[in-house]
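Batch 3, record 17
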Amino acid sequence: MTPLQTSLDALLAAIRFELPDLKPVEDDINPVVTWLARLRLMQGVPFAYLVPHNEFLPHESIRFFYINRNWTDRAVEGALSVGGITTQDRSLLQKAYAVLRKSVDAHERRVASDERGSPQMQGDAEVLTGFLLRSHAVSGWPGMHVRAYRTTNNKDSEVELLRMERLAPAVLLVVMDGVPDRVELEEPRQGIQFGVRPKANHSNHRFVPLRDPETGESFGSDQTSGDEATDVTIPFRSGSPGVIDLHELRDRMVTTAPDDELGDNLDSAEFGLQMLRYPYRQTFGEQNNVGISTVFKATLDLNSILFVRQ
Amino acid sequence: MSIPKKGEMRLYSACIPDMGAGKYTINLKQELSGGTTNSADDTTNIASTALPGVFEDVDKHIEVTGPRLNLAGNEIFGSFPPNHSVGAFDNRLAHITLKRRTLPWERKTGDSTDDTNNRKPWLALVVLAEAEANFNRNVSVTEFTESLPPNVRTTLGLNESASMDLLEVTEEVIEKVFPLRDEVSLLSHVRQVNLADTELAGSDDDGFMAVILSNRLPRRGQSYGAYLISLEERLNVLPERKPNTTTTDNVGGNSVYEHFTADIIAAASSSYAANFYTGKQPATPEVFAISKITIETERNAYITTRNPNLTRATAGFTIGINNANNKTSSWVPSVPQRLARGTSGVSSSAPTSRPFKASKDKADNAAGAKRHTAQATAQPFLFHDMNYVALLGTSVRTVKFPVLANWSFTCTEHGGFEALMQELDIGLHGKTGSQNLANNQELFQPDITDTGHTLIDHLTRQGDTTKSWYRGPLTPRQVVRNLEHAPYHMADQARRLVENGLEDISEAAAFECGRLLALSDTSFIQALMQWRRRDFYVKRKQNNLKLWEKIHPELRAVDALNPKLTERFIQLNTLEKLKNNKKLFGKAALRPIHDVRTTLTPNDMNTISTGLGISAIDVSRTLKSPSQQPVTSLKAAELPAEQDFNAITKNASTEFSHLQSGLKQSLGGIVQNMNLATDIQIDIDQNFDPIFEGSLDQFKLDPKLPGGVVIDDIKLPDDLRDALNEIEGVLKDKLEDSFKDRLDRLFDGIDRDQLNPELNPNRRTR
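Prediction for the assembled complex:
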């Protein structure tokens, strides 16, 4: 190739690929970007793509995950490849892709807030995490509350949920914006409830942790074991399963209460207080001895080490 | 008394009204004393000789009313578990919340220990399994009052013409399930909340609510009715605590009466019988017969111990089994028909009709006894089962209660929320179910790496079956986002080979997944195509148009023209001008340009004339004499919307300078390469203004070219000329494109009829 040709080629190239400044997302509701952002959050992605084998999600399990950005990027590119026929289409896509990707990144966080009508979050999408929960708790408690927190300088800030959806009657998918330090699942609030708690180590026994009638707070640490000194095992009438022997229960409460806090008799208000059950809240993360480090672990990209790109 | 803060609540053990519901009489009596009559020896009190009609006693009657036999729905604030709900309520006590805080203490229970300050509530909430209760809606009050002892009936003084909801249970059930006399008061309290707290206060008007708890935890797999019953003047029907009462810490089995199921199953030698007692349908009529005998034995034994006087109790039992298909009325809420269905083949003795309800008319009884017998046989709960009441007639005593509110719920098998959460298997994505493996070693375990990859079957294009690695969008570790090769245009670009020779198809699968999802969504495809057209090509062309306009100012006038013709027009015109540019191209002949004019027929000219919106004469003249300034009439044409052009041309300078610098650079290179430097002056004007005002002629002919490259009298070699031709061609294409698009865009939404009629081809043809 002569220098002349080279120069001319350069000239031709300069003319041919003189593309305009692309601003593909001028309006916020660009349907393409919205759709792609939803795809990023795996909306519509068949379950088998998420969970390739049953064993990934056994019954009564919760699985935390990071979202693999490379996977979602490929899915987005696959969607964009539709209808791209000519070389020109491809070259244009090549040129526009960077801008487009940024738009989708920015839009990712808006999908959830748009749907909920909450204020829009700004800024580019971060690391996405989430969990899959497969449990009767999903089918039995449809209004379950999920909250995630990140702790910085001992201050909790809520991690926004980008997606929370039941993929099947008993499977819940939650996608979170960032890496949380703590995730809480809370029983739906169906008003105030009364009841007992199952003993962790004795499935046939029930107990209530005694509360101080002055404050309403539990005397003990309110653990789930039922073995605290201020926990009262519920007595039942012999031969009548489930029927509480209130007489005996009252006596037990009075004798169990430290420093005779409950006096020598128990009136109905005190009894009601003791039987009051708040919605149960399960915490994953720091507060539940499930160290966050075991759930969320920042690592190197092992993929790039193990699976060498060609 | 302060109001609780939001989110707080305050509990009171009772809220006893000063004046309970009931009839009151205010008796006014005036007594005079102290004065004497004038008569000195008559010391009679004046009062004793009261003037007739003046000091007569006055009785005023008032009645404090309140819910008694019925409770309006709006008096109920809420209840738990919700009506008809299905859930794991086995650790929850049913309760009902009433808006009227004094309601549970408004009426008397008839208990001797009650006084004005310490009164037991007259309402209790009982939770009964389906078969334990006989619940009838809208029955006559007399049905209730007739079951009462005469003195209670008098005390209550109910209006017997009204109707009510009535609960009927056996004494056995009362003893086993109902709260004891001294327990009732523990189960009612008053709650005070802040009215502003919608979650707690709802639509309540004073923030006070009465709460009534039940004393029974529902058992799994059972359906229950919750009944708010009245104990007015009848607290004594509730049992008192016996000194030898035993308690257990075990909540008990799932059956309502575990001792029965356990004992009887143990006693029954036949496993069929066991099936029967656990509620499963007997497989065959024979099986059923066996079960029946077992029941009978047990029942006899029970009756003997409990009530030795009941000698004829069995009479009702063996009858009427054939009659199982009779649908029940409300008498039995929902006895499982499935159990009764297996009974039709069993022979039975002749029906001996026993009255199953003392007060019912006789005509009803025969049929009633039959059908309930059949169902009763199928029920495992024996004497607590109201169906047995039917078949034993009046020999088992039942007690009736007015029901003010009732609802039903089902307690399901699985554990509570807390238990489920406690037992969750926690892990990162990719962790397999360990307990499954422990239980069953045979279980297939997929190959899962700690990166979250798994081996899946892969059918290659060649038809081979192999295994490939796959990892979905969910990974146990954070994966660094790799932007290096993006975007991919095909799935194959994303296939990767792993060290052991297997493929990693994760990202290729993702690509295909995205592609297929897009293809399945027509609205997305539409949006994508529109985006490409509008935001992509059009923008590019719009930019190019800016350049075009500088070169062909006169063409701004032809916007109204048919784009196809305009295109051709531009081509010819441009080439014509370029061809005549001797200074640029020297004397060498350009490649001949195909001139459409030579092949145009008169018809074509008409087409052009129509299309261009100009007179046929002009067209004809132009075609005949190419040197002439073409289409003179166009010059007078008006621009449709001048401001649009201004907007479009705004950035023309940028694009133009790009082209110029490219051209400049290349020409500089060309010149150098050709050793023509001595003949060429290259004078780069740094302050050159890229906005080019003038025609294409000026652009090319001006010895001082835009960009500052001066090329004068250069004899270009053939290859360079070819190259320039090509450049020219590219430029032309580019500009044409933009021109066309600009036309489209400009007329988007503009009514062409509004434009200069001279330019409107449609109008012209009329």
